[in-house]
Amino acid sequence: MPVASTTDVLIVGGGPAGLAAAIAFRKKGIDCVVVEARSPVIDKACGEGLLPSALISLARLGVEITARDGHPFRGIRFTDSTHQVKADFPQCSGIGVRRTRLHSRLVEHASEAGADVRWNSRATLGNQNSALIDGHEVKFRWLVGADGQASSVRRWAGLNTFRKESVRYGFRRHYNLSPWDEYVEVYWGSAGQIIVSPVADDCVCVVYVTRNRHCNWHQILDEFPQLQARLQGVAMLSQQRGAVSATRKLHTIARGSIALIGDASGSPDIITGEGLAMAFRHACALADAIESGNLGSYSRSHKCIGRLPHAMGALMLTMDRWPSLEAGAMRTLASNPDLFQELLSFHVGAKCVSELAVGVSDSSAGF
To answer: Is the pTM of this model over 0.90?
Structure first.
C-alpha cells in the first residue's frame, strides 16, 4: 500500500485515546494518520473496569464491548478496616476488560474504519502542518496529541503548563481467581487504596495506588486480612506493572490547529475510574469540532467533560489525604447506603447536582 503524504489529521499516539479519535474521524469521513512508536497490543497498568459511561461512549463510536470481552460488574463497593458500603449503577452494568483486550478491539475497529495506523513508527514535528514519519514527510491540517501523560506533542506545542497537578503511583497484578463479587471493590487503607476488578471468569485485576512510590504491596494488603486470605497462594497471571496516576488540569488543551486528548490533555486520579470514559468523549467532541473547522467548541466540551470526574476525584483524594475524614465518611455512608447510591448515580452522570443535594442534606451531619 502506498504511504500517504498528506492527511486531514495527524494523531500522535496509538493507545485507546488515539484510536478512539481515529474511529471518530473516520465515521465523519475525515482522513487521519495515527503514529505509534510501539506495536500492538499495548498494555498499561490500570484498574481495567469500564464504567457504564465508558461503554456508552464506546457504543457511540460503534465499538460494542460485551461480557464476551471481559466480566460484568453491577456497581461499586467501598471497604475500610471497620465499614463497608455498596451501590449499584442505576441504568446498566460496567464491564471489567483486560487492557490488552480493549486495545485489540480498538485496533480492529480503527482498521475497519479505514484509519491509516503506523505502528513501530516515530513522528518528528517540523512545523504546525508537517512532520517526518520514519523519514518521510507527511503534511496535515490538524495535529492531535494522544500520547499520554508525558506528551511530547504537548511540550512541542507549548501547552505544557498546568493549573493543577498531583501525582500518585499505581501497581497492577492479575490473579488466576474467579471473581467472588459482582462489584468493583475499593479498599481504603492508611497507605492508599486497593482496587479489585473482575475481568474474566477466571481472573481478577488487583491495583494498589498510593502517594508513596516506595510503599510495598504487603504494607497495604496487610490491612485487609480477608482480601489477603483470598489472594494467598493464588497464581499470578501477570507480573506487577506500575504507572503514574496523575491528577492534572491544563491551562489550554487546544491552540490554532493543535488539540490534545486523553491523558495528554489532563487526567483525573485512577480512583475515579473515569479516565478512559473521558478519553472516548474527548474523541467524539474533537471529531465534531474538526468537522466544523473550529477547535473552540472542543475546548468548551473538554471542560464540561472533565468537570464531574475532577470534582469527584478531589473529594476522594481528600479522603485519602485525611484518614480521619475517610473514617467519618465511611461511617456515614455505611449507616446510610442510600446516600452512597446517590453519590454513585451522580458520579456516573445519572443524577444532577440539584437532585443530589436533596439526598445529601439529610445525611451530611455525620461527616
So the answer is: yes
